[in-house]
Design goal:
By secondary structure, the protein is mainly alpha-helical. The protein is about 50% helix and about 10% strand. The chain has three helices and two strands. The longest helix is centred in the C-terminal third of the chain and has 19 residues, at about 60-75. The radius of gyration is 15 Å and the shape is elongated.
């Protein structure tokens, strides 16, 4: 998720499934309930209709978090990073 519109879409989908969320942030959702495999499949389908993806494997989630951190740093932070990143 990269925008407030994406967050709104996710919140609305969660509400339509009767799910209560604690956090809906860029690339991350925390819900109070346990969801069934069927609910997960349906949520994945509904999110895809809006151009969003439900990521479930840990590697994809980590990659998404890194991408979001970079986007945040580049677009929303005036300070330069405290480390030099070199491309080898």
């Amino acid at each position: 998720m990269v925008s407030s519109r994406c967050k709104t879409v996710v919140k609305e989908e969660l509400k339509s499934f009767g799910l209560h969320f604690i956090i809906v942030d860029l690339g991350e959702v925390e819900i109070l309930e346990q969801i069934s495999e069927e609910q997960r499949k349906q949520l994945k389908i509904e999110l895809s209709h809006s151009g969003l993806e439900l990521m479930e494997d840990k590697k994809s989630i980590l990659i998404e978090r890194i991408k979001n951190a970079i986007i945040e740093m580049v677009h929303h932070t005036e300070d330069l990073p405290s480390k030099d990143f070199q491309i080898i």
